[in-house]
Design a protein that fits this description.
mainly alpha; binds NADPH dihydro-nicotinamide-adenine-dinucleotide phosphate; binds the ligand CC(C)CCC[C@@H](C)[C@H]1CC=C2C3=C(CC[C@@]21C)[C@@]1(C)CC[C@H](O)C[C@@H]1CC3
Length: 418
């Protein structure tokens, strides 16, 4: 199959073999974490307590529940939005339009769940369904990616993603062929990136908190902290939903198994690991330590938000008084690169803030187990890899100007270390 741009993009993620391995390893890791979190020893590196059979994984009732959840989020996505934003210019010079109503979807979901709980819905029963729910989500991700792959066979080359057109079906299935798969105005990638998984994550956390209250009389301080920190993170992502339109996931990566599984299964079922761990392994937490952890989360959030907002403000309007005084490097594309302020400290200050928050989410779980630190370890690896991919793309976009930026701001994420 001829590559639409004439030359093939270099293969990432270890090529077809790496992609095939990841398609097995990622779901296996997710199930391992789910099973180990509820086991007594909770050893990250130990064997799972048991291997779940089909009776544990498969439940038509749970599948129906999962599909209802997806349907509810799709319906909320279709509601009138406070704003419709335009994405970046595409290869064919057009721009897609996206509804900005993610925060509204979060609030409406909270209202609906609140009503359902007061009408007797046993939300505390959800933690018992996590394994079959994760199985339903994984199955959906596989089937969905397969349908997306088939759909991409019929689109023009200008609609394909730069990376997912190697011609190797396994690799392209994993990375995704089509950049912005849509039916009418319903954008599948944008929908999945921010709605069912992120909102599902906070709902699972809340269910774990409610079950802890049922089991122990009240939720623990550690559980409150984990719920509060992660709700702030998800609320922030949905409030600043428009910013996702400039991420590499939307502008560069196709929609294939990696993002479908990542968005629908990986995020809700592994990002809620700390709350899962706390339900089965209560941790005492005194007020002084809790306050110190809150300060760490606040510091991480401050860096993350200020850095992201500074770049977004600058990209929208470089003459905005909040950023007009910052030093910049001109590039051949006509755009400029910030070289002072947050983006003059390290080349990815937002990643630094995100990592500090990740640490703060694990600390309420104590230091007796490695398991609750999985997110921090995985996230460090994800961001180091993502940073390298972004640098590669920026070097291509900005050439010499990017090299000058790298000379002037030599550290990538952590000042004086990396
Ligand atoms: N929790 C999770 O699982 C994940 C969270 N995240 C978070 O999502 C957020 C978005 O991350 P991500 O999409 O990776 O990337 P960034 O928001 O860091 O965006 C990178 C882009 O910013 C622009 N840029 C880079 N340097 C400069 C500069 N000096 N001046 C102006 N513009 C610059 C470039 O794009 P251009 O020049 O084209 O504007 C570059 O491609 C981050 O806060 C990250 O921490 C990300 C991944 C996973
Ligand atoms: C399954 C693999 C390990 C890789 C999966 C990656 C995805 C889980 C992430 C890719 C980019 C993401 C972003 C976010 C969540 C995780 C995924 C989907 C955010 C929405 C998180 C909140 C931030 O404020 C914005 C992020 C954008 C990128």
């Amino acid at each position: 199959m001829a590559h639409p741009q004439g030359s093939r993009a270099p293969l990432e993620f270890g090529g077809p073999l790496g992609a095939a391995a990841l398609m097995v390893l990622l779901p296996a890791t997710m199930f391992h974490l789910l099973l180990v979190a509820r086991s007594g020893p909770a050893r990250l590196l130990g064997p799972p307590p048991y291997l779940p059979g089909p009776d544990v994984l498969w439940s038509p009732r749970v599948l129906l529940l999962w599909l209802t959840w997806l349907g509810l989020q799709a319906a909320l996505y279709l509601l009138p939005a406070r704003k419709v934003a335009e994405g970046l210019e595409l290869k064919d010079k057009s721009r897609l339009r996206y509804p900005i109503n993610g925060f509204q979807a979060l609030v409406l979901t909270a209202l609906l769940v609140g009503l359902a709980v007061s009408a007797g819905l046993p939300l505390g029963a959800l933690p018992e369904m996590l394994v079959p729910l994760a199985f339903a989500a994984t199955l959906t991700a596989f089937i969905f990616s397969f349908l997306l792959y088939l759909k991409a066979l019929g689109v023009p080359p200008s609609a394909l993603a730069p990376g997912g057109t190697s011609g190797n079906p396994i690799y392209d299935f994993f990375l995704g062929r089509e950049l912005n798969p849509r039916i009418c105005s319903f954008d599948f990638k944008y929908f999945c990136e921010l709605r069912p998984g992120l909102i599902g994550w906070v709902l699972i956390n809340l269910a774990l908190l409610m079950q802890e209250a049922e089991l122990r009389g009240s939720p623990s301080l550690a559980m409150w902290l984990v719920n509060g920190f992660q709700l702030l993170y998800v609320g922030d992502a949905l409030w600043h939903e428009e910013a996702v339109l400039t991420t590499m996931d939307i502008t560069h990566d196709g929609f294939g198994f990696m993002l479908a599984f990542g968005d629908l299964a990986w995020v809700p079922f592994t990002y809620s690991l700390q709350a899962q761990f706390l339900l089965h392994h209560p941790q005492p937490l005194g007020l002084p330590v809790a306050s110190a952890i809150c300060l760490i989360n606040a510091l991480g959030y401050y860096i993350f938000r200020r850095a992201n907002s500074q770049k977004n403000t600058f990209r929208k309007n470089p003459s905005d008084p909040r950023v007009a005084g910052l030093e910049t490097i001109p590039t051949a594309t006509g755009r400029q690169l910030l070289v002072s302020g947050w983006w003059g400290m390290v080349r990815h200050p937002n990643y630094l803030g995100d990592l500090i928050m990740a640490l703060a989410w694990s600390l309420p779980c104590g230091v007796s187990h490695l398991l609750p630190y999985f997110y921090f370890l995985y996230f460090t690896a994800l961001l180091v890899h993502r940073e390298a991919r972004d640098e590669q793309q920026c070097l291509q976009k900005y050439g010499l100007a990017w090299q000058e930026y790298c000379q002037r701001v030599p550290y990538r994420i952590l000042p004086y270390v990396y």
